[in-house]
Amino acid sequence: MLLLAEEPRNIDEIPDLLQISRISLLPHIKKLKEKGLILQNGDVYSLSTTGEILVRKARPLLNSAGIFEDNDSYWGYRKLDSIPPHLLKRIGDLKGSQLLEPGLTHGFDLFPELIDNFTDSSKVMLLFSFFHPLIPSFSLELAKKNVQAQLIFSRDSFDRLSGDFHDTGEKIMAKGNASIFIYEGGPLEIPALIAVSDNALLLGLFNKKGRFEGQYLLNFEPLSLAWGKELFEYYRDRSENVLSMDSPRPFPDANGGLSNLK
What pLDDT digit, counting tens, does each position of 208-243 carry? Predict the structure, then answer.
């Protein structure tokens, strides 16, 4: 049925595409016809309206199953509660992701794929729940190239940035094309890494013990990029825009929200 969803097919080509014999195929075709899920016109088969509806509903489930099957050793040990329910339902949009794990030679480097796919992008979205000493210089490099950059840091990561790399942070913020946000929740409440460029998505999740093992997914598909952008925007909308590197910790206001001391 997924095959016929692409286009009507001749009975002579279906066995080759499915890699089964014609004799094995015919009983299944008969059952699908009896259920009204496929139609026959001579030697050509196509989906009925009911069949099209079922395939449309089943495809997200099959894509999701494919995601977990392709990288079961990764997904089986990840904390998935940092992905909001509406995006978790569409986890199949990440179909085709490559699982990457930097080797020991990159142990102290920033992710190579981050550098390769982001430095020449016109827009980037970056979320870091952990701090890496090369993040400030990499972010400044993007800002200097007039890349439209949005950066979300966990509170702990921002405190490292504003403390140990204060001048670099000021230079980043001085560029009108770069914005910095702070997510005030715990660092384990968000993904370890979200990075979206014009043509690439990198996604890193903590394992169930709350550790980031350096493994992350890389995807270049438009559907995946849109999914990653939505995930980033979800956390950006729940973060505070930083107006100064000397921004103090917010305190609860009268309405229970968060305000900054002026």
Answer: 888 888 888 999 999 999 999 999 999 999 999 998
User: If you average pLDDT over every residue of the chain, what do you get?
Assistant: 85
What 3-state class would DSSP assign to 6? helix
| DSSP label of 97 | P
**Neighbouring residues of 54: CB distance < 8 A, sequence distance ≥ 6:** 1, 37
Residue 56 to residue 36: CA distance in whole angstroms: 16
The per-residue pLDDT for range 164-220, each reduced to its tens digit, is 999 999 999 888 899 999 999 888 899 999 999 999 999 999 998 888 888 889 999
Residues 42 and 20: their CA atoms lie apart, in Å, by: 21
DSSP helix/strand/coil, 207: strand
Question: For residue 34, what are its two tokens?
Answer: 């009896």
Q: What distance in Å separates the CA atoms of residue 130 and residue 116, rounded to the nearest whole number?
A: 21
Please state, in angstroms and rounded to a whole number, the distance separating the CA atoms of residues 204 and 153: 14
CA distance 24 to 20: 7
92 phi-psi bin (left φ>0, alpha ψ -120 to 50, beta other): alpha
43: its two tokens? 């030697």
What stretches of 92-194 show up as alpha helix (H) in DSSP? 112-118, 135-144, 155-164, 166-174
Long-range CB pairs of 121-124, under 8 A, 24+ apart, other chains included: 121/147, 121/197, 121/198, 121/199, 121/200, 122/147, 122/148, 122/198, 123/147, 123/148, 123/149, 123/197, 123/198, 124/148, 124/149, 124/150, 124/195, 124/196, 124/197
pTM metric for this prediction: 0.71
d(CA 125, CA 62): 29
